[in-house]
Design brief:
With 402 residues, the chain is mainly alpha-helical. It has 16 helices and no strands. The C terminus is likely disordered.
Length: 402
């Protein structure tokens, strides 16, 4: 695996920490900003919405720009967004800083994924994406719990300052260790890139990714209050449980990255089915602290086990447009990361309680399984058509010769 891919994974650590650390900071942020926890949860959705919109926009805007320069500019803007969040005096400005940071994060993911995919052969795409997603997993193992720890002891703003410092380190790594990536001999054309959206498989991949991510983060976004208010654990347990989720994510990413290239649909079906089962168990056993702790680890494993396959699937069906394929994958994940917390917040606001977020997440995951089954059926149908066409070619040629 090229060193540049691993450097991208290290940069993703800073991005992922910022994206997910709010799950351990929501109660303190809500108190400080004088808003409800569901409204504070919208800050998670704001970041995700910024990713959804920013990924394709920045992918298009930077389509003909040098890759390395683009990555440097985006990680710089992201770091400044963290500083703005740390200094935000009110909810509105904090919300705006999250959206700006998300735009930069989305662009970095889209361009970085395209660079990573371009540097490896086709049969190593899932492993390359696993390295980048590994940065996200380590963010969940170290960054998110560290953010919760800082928030508990030094205030939630200290977590934003820490991510700003991590972004500066990532900037140095990108600027000094990622080589200059030459632009393709044939310059990308927007019309050709946009043609991927005519493919039903691309849209199915978007739906699958959004629902699989949304189902997990519908519950995960409100894990801190679930742990303290429902399971009865002390606040000091929150960083530990978040770390366990992250350890599970790292395990899932490692295993899924090694298996997905050979058994992509098998990974998708088994991984999403496992997430569904764990979410149902979490809803049923939310009052049992030991069960919640164990299920947090298992949910991290199943969620990130599917992530390399979800990324590789999009590049497989949209390979003619690698930049927009990366942007579309990023947008799809964050469509789920926006919709999941929003649905979870609606469930809580409706008086159903924190445990009900797991039921809502399980429902999203079930729909994702149905979409995977449809995609697999469509692929088999398309393969049969191609096979029949290949069989007819010699006959057509023979007829033409006669």
């Amino acid at each position: 695996m090229p060193l540049a891919v691993r450097i991208l994974g290290l940069a993703v650590f800073a991005l992922g920490t910022s994206e997910f650390m709010l799950s351990g900071l929501l109660p303190d942020m809500a108190d400080d900003m004088h808003v409800s926890i569901p409204r504070a949860g919208l800050l998670i959705s704001a970041f995700a919405i910024g990713m959804v919109v920013g990924a394709p926009l920045l992918a298009v805007a930077t389509l003909r720009l040098p890759r390395r320069t683009t990555l440097i500019a985006l990680i710089t803007v992201f770091g400044l967004g963290q500083v703005a969040g740390a200094l935000a005096p009110n909810y509105a400005l904090l919300f705006a800083s999250r959206v700006i940071s998300a735009f930069a994060c989305a662009g970095f993911w889209a361009v970085g994924a395209a660079v990573a995919i371009a540097m490896v052969p086709v049969n190593a795409r899932a492993r390359a994406m696993a390295v980048m997603i590994g940065g996200l997993s380590i963010a969940n193992v170290l960054g998110v719990p560290a953010g919760a720890f800082l928030g508990e002891n030094l205030g939630w703003r200290s977590a934003f300052w820490a991510v700003g410092a991590a972004s500066a380190i990532a900037l140095v790594g990108v600027a000094t260790l990622i080589p200059r990536i030459p632009l393709p001999a044939v310059r990308p054309r927007l019309r050709n890139e946009l043609s991927i959206y005519r493919d039903r498989q691309v849209w199915l991949s978007i739906v699958i990714t959004a629902l699989a991510a949304g189902g997990v983060f519908c519950a995960f976004s409100y894990l801190a209050p679930l742990l303290t208010d429902v399971a009865g654990l002390a606040d000091s347990w929150v960083p530990t449980v978040l770390a366990l989720f992250g350890v599970g994510a790292l395990v899932g990413t490692t295993v899924g990255g090694r298996v997905a290239d050979a058994h992509l649909f098998g990974v998708l079906l088994t991984g999403i089915a496992a997430s569904t089962a764990f979410l149902v168990a979490l809803a049923l056993l939310a009052h049992h602290s030991v069960a919640v702790v164990i299920l947090s680890f298992l949910l991290g494993t199943s969620a990130f086990y599917t992530a390399p396959a979800l990324n590789a699937r999009m590049f497989n069906v949209a390979g003619a447009a690698p930049t927009l394929a990366g942007a579309t994958t990023t947008a799809s994940f964050n469509l789920g990361n926006a919709g999941g917390p929003w649905l979870g917040g609606a469930v809580i606001s409706g008086g159903l309680g924190y445990a009900a977020t797991a039921w809502a997440g399980a429902a999203m995951a079930v729909v994702a399984i149905i979409a995977v089954s449809l995609s697999l059926r469509l692929q088999k149908s398309q393969s049969r058509v191609v096979a029949r066409s290949s069989d007819l070619v010699p006959e057509a040629a023979a007829t033409e010769t006669v």
